[in-house]
Amino acid sequence: MKVAVLDIKGKETGRKADLSDAVFAIEPNEHAVYLDVKQYLAHQRQGTHKAKERAEIAGSTRKIKKQKGTGTARAGSIKSPVFRGGGRIFGPRPKDYSQKLNKNVKRLARKSALSIKSRENAIIVVEDFSFETPKTKEFKDILKSLGIENKKSLIVLGDSNNSVYLSSRNLKGSEVVTSSEISTYKIMNANNIVLVESALEGLESNLNKN
After folding, report:
1. Contact at 8 Å (CB) between 177 and 203?
2. Taking phi first (over 0 means left), then psi (-120 to 50 degrees means alpha), and beta for anything else, what does residue 33 get?
3. Cα–Cα 20 to 30 A to 205, which of 11, 18, 59, 85?
4. CA 120, 124, 125 angle in degrees (round to 5)?
5. Domains of the chain
């Protein structure tokens, strides 16, 4: 599949990038996409939630009133869950939410996500670019030239570039990753995927491993 390569001004360079059909034109497997997104979101949970139960509450162990003759229900401890300040019944406990997922399924999910974006014509290929120093304004100008300034965008670089990353960090709807950091969730969450030329080889190589 051939896609025109644009410069940072949004104009065609006259060159075309060859996107592998094995990565950008497969029949999407929606269930694999679902599983990978579910795993990603599960891994964002810390699982450190904790509520004190009856045995963990600090308080007197004396019987707070006599058993009979009060006209109310019997009660033996101020730490009972029925009283304010008492322990919580079946409260949350620390939990590991991580999930396991086969590597082949993850690759299939990412290829499926990229193929979905390709069908939607949401993939843009641009020539390599960099900044001498972080410049959010210059980065924003690139997004504007590409027509995605007000859309969620995922910019995929070939190698880590701190200046480009820092330039994008203050922009809420834009995220910069390398080809090795790309995830199904980030692909599906973005309206447009911007692939830098140098990222194509690494991206296709990572997703076509056996």
Report:
1. no
2. alpha
3. 11
4. 145
5. 2-45+100-207 (3.40.1370.10), 47-96 (no CATH)
Annotate 146-178 with DSSP letters as a single string. TT-TTS-EEEEESS--HHHHHHHTT-TTEEEEE
Q: What is the pTM of this model?
A: 0.84
What is the DSSP code string of the chain?
Answer: -EEEEE-TTS-EEEEEEE--HHHHSS---HHHHHHHHHHHHHHT---------GGG-----S-SS-SSSSSS-----TT-TTSTTSPPTT------------HHHHHHHHHHHHHHHHHTT-EEEE-----SS--HHHHHHHHHHTT-TTS-EEEEESS--HHHHHHHTT-TTEEEEETTT--HHHHHH-SEEEEEHHHHHHHHHHHT--
Q: How far is CA 89 from CA 63, 79, 93, 94, 167, in A?
A: 20, 11, 11, 15, 49
* pLDDT at residue 209 tops 80: no
Q: Could you identify the residue written with the tokens 């007000």?
A: 150
Q: What is the mean pLDDT of the chain?
A: 92
User: How confident is the model at residue 208, as a pLDDT?
Assistant: 84
